[in-house]
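User: C-alpha cells for this one?
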Amino acid sequence: MTSTAPQHTDVEGVDGGVGLTSLLVAAARAIETRRDDSLAQDTYAEHFVLAAPACADWPVRIQQVPDGDGNPLWGRFARYFGLRTRVLDDFLLQAVRTGTRQVVLLGAGLDTRAFRLDWPSGCAVFEIDRAGVLEFKRRVLTDLAAVPKTARVPVPFDLRADWSGTLTDVGFDPAAPSVWLAEGLLFYLPGPAETNLIDTVDRLASGGSALAFEAKLEKDLLAYRDSPIYTATREQIGIDLLHLFDKGPRPDSAGALAARGWSTSTHTPFEFTRRYCRGPLPEPNDALEGNRWVFAHKPRP
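Assistant:
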C-alpha cells in the first residue's frame, strides 16, 4: 500500500500536505468503526477515504491489512487515532451536558462530530479549516445525504491568520461559554501561530469554557525518524509527518493558560489506553512517547 501522493505543506485541499493527514485520520476512524471492540463510531469516515484519489488503495478495515494489528501504521497508529477520537468525543459531550452550547473545532479537517454525536438542543458546532478541506467534506457528505444532528457552521479560514472576527461574524458569542478542540493541529503550526491561537481562544472564551488540545514534548522530533510509526507512514502511504511538523521551538501553551487562571491537566495517551483497556502502550523508539493530551477549563467569574 504505497502512495506517491504529493506532499506540499500548503496544498489547499486533501490531496497533499497537512490536508492529506486528515485522510489518514479518516482511514484510522474507519478501521476503528469496524472493530469488534470499537472505541468510536464514525460511519462517514470510510467514504472520505474512498472519495479521494490520493488514498484509493488505503484500507478502511483491519481485515484489509495483511499483517493486521501487527502493522505499525494501520494497527498501532490507527488505534491511537481511535482512542484519541473517543477521549475527545467524551470531553466535548461532557462540556455540553453541563450547559455549554457552542463547540469550536479548530482545524476541523474531516471531523464529523456534528453528524455522529448526540447533541443537546441549542448546540452549534463551528468548524474552522481551510476552504479546500471543508469543500471536500461538503461534497462527500452531500452525496451521502448526511444531515447534522445540530446546527453546523463551516468557517473556511486558515488558522495561521486572524480568524477571530470571522468566527464572531458567523454567530459565535464570546459572552457565552464554549468548548474548543484542537485535535492533531498545533504541532503543524509555527510556534508564534500556536501562541496566537491560544491567545485568541483565551480572549474569546468566557468563564465556564473548556479547551482540549494535543501537544508534543520532544526536544528533537528527528530522534524518532526511524521509529516504526513514522517509517511505516512514510513507506506505506507516502506521508512524511516529520516533514510536515513545524521544527521550531514549541510554546508551553498549557503553562500559558494556567498563568491566566485556567485549570489544566496534561495526560499521556497511554493513561487512556489503560482506562479503556484498548489502545497503544509504550514501546521502544516510540513516536508517541512525547504526545500529550491537555484539558483546560476557564473558571467562571
